[in-house]
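protien #1 (seq + structre)
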Amino acid sequence: MRLLPHLAARGGADRRADLHEAGYGPGLLAWALDRGLLVAHPGWVVALPGAAPDVVVARRLRGVLCDASAARWHDLPVLTAPRSTSVAVGRGTSRRALPGAEVVRRTVPPEHRLDGPPVTTPLATVLDCARRLPFLDGLAVADAAAHRGLVTPDDVLRGAAALSGPGARRAREVARLVDPRCESVLETVLRTLLLELRLPYELQVDLDGVGRVDALVDGRLVVEADGFEHHSRRAEFREDRRRANALVRRGLPLLRLTYEDLVHRRARTLRLLREAATPAAHRSRSA
């Protein structure tokens, strides 16, 4: 049956009228609904079982997922999880928001939408998040998209340069700092701290006998950004100890920073990084 692959290519949900126009008549839809192959939703929308709720909401509103909701669809991380589903609808439309949804009065040009699912393209998503989300969230989305090859830093620079209006300046600042070497949102936050301190650093550095480290600061301090999901199994625990011991042999101190350190204790972590990156002899002269 071609109906199910067609619906999957449309993001898992679609309006009945659009399916009829594509050649899938009411009889076929009724047959698929009776057999549990499709699920009916309000607003004359049908979906595959397990379809993403955000896509269903976008179809019901006849709009396009945008901003943080589009980032979530593309599996791009943000620091602050969106509380509602953001759906862009054309300016001048009279559609009201649904529970748990935010209607964004914005016209999305066809070239800024995916061909199928009701979602903005990766580049449009990065630029929207850069201009409308808090700076760190926008940079995390941009870094992740560049790391996965969904956009290039040059794409983002050119796109941001063409923006105007509210948030355009912030978007250009995000574009200037995009770094595809960042492998997680925590590494993005760490990088902003090092930039704020004006400390020279390298990301994703391979050290002989140690392996790859998140950041090497001024050639003498290793910094690792640890998320909840890492280093919890015994094998990972042993590997972490081996790496730490190897760093000691190389004379490199190791600073491990958690999510709380990087996100919720920014001022304290800035002081910690500044002190850890300052040579001991210089600290003793300054005391």
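ok now protien #2
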Amino acid sequence: MQLVAGSSHLKLGGSLAKALGASLAQVNLSQFSNGEKRVQIQTPLAGEIVVILQSLTTPVDDRLVETLLLADAAERSGAKALYLVMPWLGYSLQDKVFQSGEPIASKVIAAMLSTGRFQRIFLLDLHNASEAGFFSLPTEHLNFLPEFATYCQTTFDLDHSVVVSPDFGGLKRARELAVKLKTPLANCDKNRNMQSGIVTVMDLHGDVTGLDAIVFDDVIVTGGTASEIAKTLKDHGARSVHWLVTHGLFAGDARQQLADSQIDSIVISNSIEQTQLPAKTTVLDLTSILTRTLKPWLR
């Protein structure tokens, strides 16, 4: 078995290969003088089960092309079976037409990845679970909630905590965590201006007074929503605010904005490889959940 780590996940690739008992394939990733990507898998793959690990992180389009080229190279090298592990699906926030003239970008990306001749594609905490249906290949949608629950059980005083959904769309996800932790549930109503992207918190449903607020979300992008909701929770008497989020994009000035916010801690997975983390951030490793999920398919 061979694991091919794309340029987005060199660190996670090494730990996942070790946990799976796979070899980490040698890959040469470079660029031609005209700007086109050049991919060469140097390890022989004939007759091998091959797992490609890649997240569509910045530069997103480059990662996408690289993934497709790696898949084609692996197939042409004689791979017996080909699997794709994509912890962060770039373009997944564009899961519907928000304004006239826009595409459903995540559906377009899913169609492109479905040309890769993968036996199965493994995805993690999609922004919208129904996006898995955009793929024409079999998919496995992983849920990182159990790992977050374990973290909460060993970190917070759950008798004095409340799980908070940052919006109506995340209410089902947050309720699942609240049930597992046996805590109350609160949720925010927010409005996003589609032209400016500015988020306004309209209302808070539920009591957070004197409690540690555990906000559960799928992704942080710029930190604007997180900062506004943290302020609202503190204004309503929350003792502390902790943000649990699977995918930390931290785009633009997010690190500074989060550092200046009233959030007391941030907990993310390593679905996106980070070179610099915001202050007060803890990273939970994906290796265990990926290993448990992949092993039955790789026998």
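The longest strand covers residues 212-220.
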